[in-house]
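Hi all, long-time lurker, first post. I run a small reading group and we've been trying to get comfortable going from sequence to structure in the token notation. Rather than ask abstract questions, I figured I'd post a concrete chain and ask someone more experienced to write out its structure so we can walk through it together at our next meeting. Sequence below, copied exactly:
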Amino acid sequence: MTADEFVKIVRKGSDKLRVDDVVFNTGSEEFHGKGLMRICRDSIDVDLTINEGEKVPDLKTGIFTKRDYWKLTGIIEDQLQFKCDYVGPSGWSSKSWPGDITKCTFDLHPIDLIPSGWDAMSRQERNLRLKQLQEGTPAAKEKAEQDAEAERTDDFSFYATLFEYPLLTSDWGKEVKGETESYEFVLKKETEDSDLYVSIHSKKEHHSPSEQNDWNKFYAFMKALAFVNGMNAWPYRIIYSRAGQNIADRVTAASKLSKTSHAPFTKRLSFNAKTGSLKWNFQESVIKAAAFFEADSNLSKEVSEILFLFREADEGVHSEITTIALCNLFENTVRLIFRELNLKEKAGADVDLKLFEEAKSEVADQISRQIAVKGEGYRRLHNVVRSAQLFSMEQMFQSVVNHFGLKWHDDMEVVFSTWKKARNPIVHDKMRSNISEDEQKVATINESRIAGAINILLLKLFGYSGWMRSSTFEDKYREI
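-- Answer (accepted) --
Happy to help. Here is the structure in token form:
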């Protein structure tokens, strides 16, 4: 079985394959076995029979971190070597008769297929091998005259496949191309329901410092793709090559990915052939977002987590839970940008901030002196005063709005009012047993506008200016 044949089975989402020579490494001991690999739409599991006489460590329960993972290696159908470095130390085990046989089931995510033969060689190693085989022939002379590019050891490539992933264009079968400072990319999708193929190749002038740097660029691109499309961009296959050598061939279950209704762009913003206008450029949006995530800063990491929760909270279905999550993520986004961009000084004059702190301290001291005399009520009031924030949520949001050059009055001020009216009742005290249809409609529109506000802030953070969708359920668009 070849790697491509295995991936076709994974793509199909249903099959069983024999695995042999399985070795488990727990970090402190090893055990061995053989069994079946079960390919499902949402997972890849392995059912193992442990070799006679060997004992599996006690299966644990509880919460696990990376340091708790076990490592596994084996061979699929006698030919394809694989490994998994993320096997959870928990599962199901039993003993069956005849004999004392132990069976275990483990989930594998992801699986790394081990390159072999020609794929395992670097470009230099392949060239040397060809020269040895063709020495003295015209082909050998031609090889010797190849430019220095053939000897490079710091170029990289990625090939990724995403299960039935959307692409905001109707030109199926055509390639969508673009480039950043360090690499060129190509996206291709044959039909609306087919998989999306992504290829990334470093430019000739780019010199990659490390494998980690290559992976950082790749995942930054995937995060950008996820933001623009409003859908998690997790390939079920990733092939990574460096200097022409396959370094990794990573495979996971080909499952449906979570998406949000509130993506910032739609096909309606694409090129209009009749008017010749271009309201939105797909490649430009992806490139700007990728550059932001590639920085790998504390800000970009936090934004990445916010967007993941943004997509998971909705997944295409409106609910009150979605609105609660989006209200929280909006506040989280504002506070994060305010803090990481050091907008404190722009939020108010230093003298006003100093006076606020002095007033808070003075009032708190006065209240504290009454606690011993008048009791617990004053203690509670003292805690309220001491916890008063220097900046209100409205001040922070207005500071962020001003920083990005957005309009406050009759624009983002309305967004803030929408968030405040939606958040406070739904979080603190809301009657849910008798909601009218009009109230439900308002709640749905509030969700849509809050989600749009998050997208506006992040687009400006990425350096984007242009058209976007500001409210999905109202089908509203605007220029920022």
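A couple of things your group might point at:
The longest strand covers residues 15-25.
The radius of gyration is 28 Å.
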